[in-house]
Structures are given as C-alpha cells and as structure tokens.
C-alpha cells in the first residue's frame, strides 16, 4: 500500500533466474499475489489498474493461472469478475515432465484436480473447453490421465 501510495508502477515486471532449469522468468505483483493467495493485495492492485492479462512466462503464465494452480478459488472469482481472459494459454511448468507447455486456466484446474475452480470456469460465457495444448494435448485428457473423474465428467457435460 505504501509503495503504491508513493507512485510505484503496478505493472512493473521483475526478472529472476532459476538455476535448476537454467532460464530466466518474469513476474509481477499481481501474479505473485494471486499465486500466493493474497486476496487483499490482488484487490488493491486491481483498484490501481494493473494489467490483469499480462503474460509472465513463469511457472504459471499469468495471474489467473497462478490462482487456479494453487487452488485460490476466491481470487479466481475476483480475477474473472474483473475481466481476466479465461481462455488465454500461458506457460505452465509440468514438474512431472520437466517441460513448459502452453495451457489454459481450465487445463490447469484439471491437472491440479481443483473441481470447484473447474466448475467456476466452465460456468463462464465463452469458455473454450477443447483448447489444445499441454503434455496431455487437451483438458479432458489431462483430467483423465490425472485421475480426476469428476472434472472429466464436468468437461464431457460441457462439450468436451
């Protein structure tokens, strides 16, 4: 709050090096707060006009994906209600495959087994259920391979 009150740029990107994967990543305050579950910070940044859909190219590509991947349902709702693009395919690091893939927030919900978040995303107008991407090629296959039967059922009920 203090930094924002002193004119800090809410959209500034930081860069850090991951020695394990030997690559640089970008991050911003919104993605960090979303991924960390800091709802009040997310609200403050949204009030200050942060770019909600900026791609960061890190473990989760954007703020929505960070919130989805870490199971922060209230932050997912907040971001969606403020216009986060539910179909953007950002970078996602699949630790089991040691690879980065372009995937949607719905794919991440399926891979991580976050059923309530999958329901929330599927309820959004314009959600694209059959986007291709990721190690499993699409969201339905990701849910099936990860053993998330309820999410697979939801996907089938919604056109997968």
From TrEMBL:
Keyword Ribosomal protein: no
SUPFAM superfamilies tied to this protein: Ankyrin repeat (SSF48403)
Sequence ranges of the ANK repeats: 25-57, 59-91
Residues passing through the membrane, by range: none
Origin superkingdom: Eukaryota
Entries under InterPro entries matching the protein: Ankyrin_rpt (IPR002110), Ankyrin_rpt-contain_sf (IPR036770)
Keywords of this entry: ANK repeat, Repeat
Record PANTHER family: ANKYRIN REPEAT AND PROTEIN KINASE DOMAIN-CONTAINING PROTEIN, ANKYRIN REPEAT-CONTAINING PROTEIN-RELATED
Protein name (record): Ankyrin
Originating organism: Massarina eburnea CBS 473.64
């Amino acid at each position: 709050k203090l930094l924002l009150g002193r004119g800090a740029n809410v959209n500034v990107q930081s860069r850090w090096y991951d020695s394990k994967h030997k690559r640089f990543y970008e991050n911003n305050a919104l993605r960090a707060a979303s991924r960390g579950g800091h709802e009040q910070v997310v609200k403050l940044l949204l009030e200050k006009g942060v770019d909600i859909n900026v791609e960061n190219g890190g473990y989760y590509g954007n703020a929505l994906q960070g919130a989805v991947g870490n199971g922060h349902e209230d932050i997912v709702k907040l971001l969606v209600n403020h216009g986060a693009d539910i179909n953007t395919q950002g970078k996602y690091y699949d630790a089991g495959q040691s690879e980065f893939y372009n995937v949607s927030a719905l794919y991440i919900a399926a891979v991580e087994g976050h059923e309530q978040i999958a329901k929330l995303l599927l309820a959004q107008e314009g959600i694209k259920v059959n986007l291709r991407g990721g190690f499993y090629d699409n969201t339905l296959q990701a849910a099936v391979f990860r053993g998330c039967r309820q999410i697979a059922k939801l996907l089938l009920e919604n056109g997968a």
